[in-house]
Amino acid sequence: MDNKRIAFLGAGSMAESMISGVVKSGKVKKENVFVTNKSNGARLGLMEEKYGVNVSSLSELPYQEIDMFILAMKPKGAAAALADLKERISPGQLVVSVLAGISTGFMEENLKDGQQVIRVMPNTSSMIQESATAISPGKNSGMAQVEDVKELLGTMGKVFVIAEDQMDIFTGLAGSGPAYFYYLMEHMELTGIENGMDENMVREIIAQTILGAAKMILEKGDTPTTLRKNVTSPNGTTAAGLTALKRNNGGHAISQAVHHAADRSREISKELEGVLISS
Length: 279
Prior knowledge:
Elements lengths: L5 E4 L3 H13 L7 E4 L4 H11 L2 E2 L12 E4 L6 H11 L5 E4 L6 H6 L6 E6 L9 E7 L5 H11 L3 E5 L5 H9 L1 H18 L4 H22 L3 H7 L6 H11 L2 H29 L1
Parallel strand pairs: 1-2, 1-4, 2-3, 4-5, 5-6, 7-8
Antiparallel strand pairs: 6-7
């Protein structure tokens, strides 16, 4: 990736997360990173000052010199951005989308025949370089392009290559997943406070508990079922807590959260692409 030139079309929070990871890792030289947006010059100035990257207007971007374009604007701007790229770039240049609801098929239909495209889905933990990110290559992208994108996104956390028809369930699991844990933490925190614990202390206790549980999965390699059984003594405190979860359909509620988020992801994709096609 050292000599690759990357252009971010959009300078919002997701673009900044990626730029921050790229610059800190040294995977791409700062002088090879370009950032542009439609009209927010102040935001571009901040990116230049904070990360030392190149900033420019859309019209001044050196399109033919760029190896990888990253679509990071608001989804409603996707159609216009793709139309502009279609007139300016060749099929050998890679287009990567981090836009929710925009499929590789939609990108391919709105770019030149044979255009290389990859769809990406990070989550909000990219802000601290701990994202679970999925990528799905389009029909014209090969392993070399996939490896380049994996290396780039690896600066934001862990990367998983999945089939595009799994993107919606991935959204339900990882895209929306942090919110489920925050919701769980809210209720655990409230219970601790109601029982006399200091708010800040109980929040840290809960966060450390979740962090430790996650590390046990990642570092030991055991399944969640095995680890749950290992810490559940018959008639003990953990068994009592799990019994309450089961009586209140806790497992079913978690499963339904994932399914409902995935269903909504499918609906949003259809709605958004319908609007973009008609606009």
